[in-house]
Amino acid sequence: MITDMAAPALVASIGDRTVPVYLGDGVLDAVGGLLVGRGEGDGVLVVVDDGIVGAADRVAASCVAAGLRVTVERVPAGEASKSLAEIERLSRAAARAGIRRRDAVVAVGGGVVGDLAGFLAASYQRGVRLVQVPTTLLAMVDSSLGGKTGVDLPEGKNYVGAIYQPVAVVMDPSVLSTLSARELSCGFAEVVKYGLLTGGDLMEIVAGWPELPGPADGLADLIRRCAGVKLAVVEEDEMDLGRRAILNLGHTVGHGIEAAAGYDLYHHGEAISLGLLAALRISEHALGLDPVWRDRTLATLARHGLPTALDGSVSIDEVIDIMGRDKKADGRALNMVLLRAPGDVLTHQDPDPGVVRAAVEELTA
Ligand SMILES: NC(=O)c1ccc[n+]([C@@H]2O[C@H](COP(=O)([O-])OP(=O)(O)OC[C@H]3O[C@@H](n4cnc5c(N)ncnc54)[C@H](O)[C@@H]3O)[C@@H](O)[C@H]2O)c1
Ligand SMILES: [Zn+2]
User: Fold this and answer.
1) Nearest to 133 by CA among 151, 153, 113
2) In testing the pocket of ligand 1, which one of 136, 175, 194 has its CB within 8 Å of the most ligand atoms?
3) Which domain range does residue 274 map to?
4) Do 216 and 85 share a domain, yes or no?
5) Tens digit of pLDDT for each residue in 281-324?
6) From the CA of 30, how far away is ligand 1's center (Å)?
7) Boundary residue ending a domain (178, 204, 225)
8) What is the pLDDT of residues 167-225, one digit of tens each?
9) What does 239-276 look like in DSSP terms, one character per residue?
10) Are residues 244 and 185 part of one domain?
């Protein structure tokens, strides 16, 4: 067991903050050491969901070993826990546990726990220190990075939240050994997205990736590279006013599919798999992307168990409608992220509606 953290694998400069990302075997056992500091409090609230085994116990044990007072709060696994009711319950649990301004919240879990506990940390006593400990592939390459936190309302996903950077992100890829094949694939859809965004050898590594999770060394390196792509974009545009939009490649159509299917049939990464294919087809028409990239991407997605054909129960009209509604709600043109080539990405305003519809319709073929 290690108790001192080795050097971070990545260090992001976001606004006036520095966010180190620790990555490797055993890093979970060193979380406590990160939270001990002169003038800092000794209270720690660990938030975890009830589908996660082991990781939170290791984090809590490391906090105890560092002389901290630890309270562990479990929430039910699943998106329904991203609610204001859960924020209230956790805030009151934190108050009863004596968590104060200089104490800390540690989020151990996937994107659900990260978003929920992240927003708790941002709002409880106007902000306490936050450590993100992502335990899903999606959380390691995406949701734990960049500071977006929040909860859902019945009226919409992620409707209440804050951008709040953690003091550290701590990821141990070995925890992925207990993650279901379906959740691993979902995270891999975002990995495929990063490959397309960067092109070059990351794209080749993604295209050649063996059965998930794949070799331990290679996986840690893949996660580091994807996390690096995301953080580099966030460094440029923390508040999501411009460049950060490129991280939405595949997400315009993907969100439409997710919502039209009632957030039930498809998990997020599965909808993104379909959204990526649509975005690549639209890119061919709008920007002359070589069709070989869509073919190759489809083969990669299919090989990792991700959907490449839209279920017949999902209404195309509704997918298109939802995309249009999002656009109106924003009061802007429909901005889609498109590629001229892998690594050559831009946001494209108002792509031809006929082309967009055809790209979605084609998914059902
Ligand atoms: N903040 C952001 O920038 C951002 C980005 C993308 C997605 N998100 C959010 O992330 C959420 C989705 O996150 P997710 O895909 O990680 O799902 P999730 O958090 O629901 O986790 C998926 C499932 O895996 C289980 N699990 C987690 N780690 C495990 C492990 N190591 N072993 C076994 N089981 C484990 C969980 O109990 C859960 O049942 C959504 O709410 C989405 O809005 C946020
Ligand atoms: Zn996504």
Assistant:
1) 113
2) 136
3) 181-364
4) no
5) 999 999 999 999 999 999 999 999 999 999 999 999 999 999 98
6) 22
7) 178
8) 999 999 999 999 999 999 999 999 999 999 999 999 999 999 999 999 999 999 999 99
9) T-SSGGGGGGTTHHHHHHHHHHTTTTSS-HHHHHHHHH
10) yes
pLDDT in tens, 316-359: 999 999 998 866 566 667 889 999 999 999 998 889 999 999 99
Token output for 225: 């590279």
Note the ligand closest to the C-alpha atom of 140: 1
Q: How far is the CA of 109 from the centre of ligand 1 (A)?
A: 7
Sign of CA dihedral 258, 259, 264, 268: positive
Give the Cα separation of 308 and 44 in Å (integer).
Answer: 43
What is the C-alpha to C-alpha distance for residues 33 and 43, in angstroms, rounded to an integer? 13
What DSSP designation does 126 have?
A: G
* Number of domains observed in the structure of the chain: 2
Q: What is the DSSP letter of 331?
A: T
For residue 126, the model assigns a pLDDT of: 98
Pair 57, 122 in one domain: yes
Q: Are 145 and 187 in contact (CB under 8 A)?
A: no
Question: Could you tell me if 263 and 306 lie in one domain?
Answer: yes
Tokens 């992240």 correspond to: 118
What is the percentage of the chain residues whose pLDDT exceeds 70?
97
* 204 and 135 assigned to the same domain: no
Q: Do 149 and 195 fall within a single domain?
A: no
**95: CATH:** 3.40.50.1970
Q: State the amino acid at position 180 in one-letter form.
A: S
- Residue 343 CA neighbour count, 13 Å, CB half: 7
- With vertex at residue 143, the alpha carbon angle to CA 138 and CA 146, rounded to the nearest 5 degrees, is 140
CA of 17 to the centre of ligand 2 (A): 24
User: Are residues 193 and 169 part of one domain?
Assistant: no
Name the DSSP class of 146. Answer: S
